[in-house]
Amino acid sequence: MYNKLKFLTAAFALSVVSANASASYVKATPSNINLNESVTIDWSRYYPNRFPNQTYNLYVYKPNGQPKYKYRSGLTSMNDVRGPNTMSGTQTIEVEVCDQNGQNCFTSSRGRVRFHVEHQCEYEVSNNKGAYYCDGTRVTQYATYQPWPLGVNDSMSEFISIKNRVYWLYTNRINNYTTEYAWYTNCRSGGTVERVTELVRNTSSSTGGNSFDRIDDFVPLHNNDTAEWSYYDSFWKRSYSRSASFSPCN
To answer: What are the tens digits of pLDDT across the range 198-214?
Structure first.
């Protein structure tokens, strides 16, 4: 199981605003794109003369929660095209400066830049229920809203599009004391909504006690239609590694 990074879609969108306003010497142009578009990464201002005939490695932190990995090595130019990008969310690119032999490498926080990829799906609400639509096709179940005085609302969060598939976390608020949640998936073109993870039911009330099962470190993988996560069983007080695979979407 990866040592994963958690991702939150809302936090990613906000982080893009401050990316180019930071002290980074690396630029992403443009900094906000749609799926399947590309960006140019430029690091000409980032330690251009640290070594004679220096080389560069590029790393990426992806928004699906995978740890950073090296996707370019031994570059001699000071720019590179990243794309086409088929995963929505915010990516962080890190530039590493090395000598001509690819050794004595160096990087810092100023060698990083972020750019954001829009998933291009819309969350639409009507008649006290909401759902995500991609290209006009509903791809999620409905989240229902019960107006005051009940005030018990379902929710969907952490929506991410990877190639032709989307994933999201759905929370069903049964009442003021009980919720059920799980990760779900569907094709961007529509079809049958599939539950990916265990359905976790949590209750907290004066009569019903508490349960603390949970889903941790959910990671939908980019290179295939597979997701990985960790399920924590509060009764046995241990975590179990899980994975699931799906048929490719058209």
So the answer is: 999 988 766 655 678 99
